[in-house]
Hints:
Blueprint: H1 2-13, H2 18-25, H3 29-41, E1 45-48, E2 51-54, H4 57-67, H5 70-86, E3 89-96, E4 99-107, E5 121-123, H6 128-134, H7 139-149, H8 162-175, E6 178-181, E7 188-197, E8 200-210, H9 211-214, H10 217-239
Antiparallel strand pairs: 1-2, 3-4, 3-8, 4-5, 6-7, 7-8
Amino acid sequence: MKSYDIITALLGAGGAGVSELADEVGLHPSTVHAHLASLCECGLVVKDGTEYRMSLRFLEFGDRLRNAIPMYQEGRTETTAVARETGEMTNMAVREGNELVVIHMSEGDNAIEKQTPVGKRNYLHCTGMGKAILAELSEERVHRIVDSVGLPASTLNTITAKDELFDALKTIRQQGYALDAEELYEGVYCVATSVKRGDDLAGAISVTGPARRFSNEQYQADLRRSLLEAANVIELNLKFHS
């Protein structure tokens, strides 16, 4: 955990010296220096004068990791097309443990400025994609996730009661899509659906935009149609993915 803490501190600081990092992570400077020396030797950290910073090798690692995900390989073209068609922002995400991880984002001409960075992690219950994924899991699995991480609120609209969450998941299964009505960010609305690879869950995709624009029922219906069509194409492509 010591090296992880140092890397995390460097990521937040952009660059820092040994003493600054030692204060940040609560370790003796000699311990921090030893870990930094090992990280430099591995090429994960670069020393510039008296400061250390993250190596760009992490970009290589992240890109190689993402390119190995079937959902990303087969879904990025379709989600990018939906962004162009709708003018909104589209996202693609997968579940890792008890969290949702964004693996791709595309912006249309009218996309909101609030971007969702690739690699961003969120709780499953407070996002459209997360709820779409939860709706595909067994009730027992959902209980375990909620018992593990709880139902913390991101906004006043976030679901924070287990009964309410299970009611929402039932509705999602019936209608085939999930909504995030300002549950993660105030003023931001999201329409999402899960994507399966055969009988397995591959991930989820979404269209995100301002709540005022998404409140128009016809507009939202058009978004849902585009999203569900894209999900269907991705699922078909995943069937033949080697």
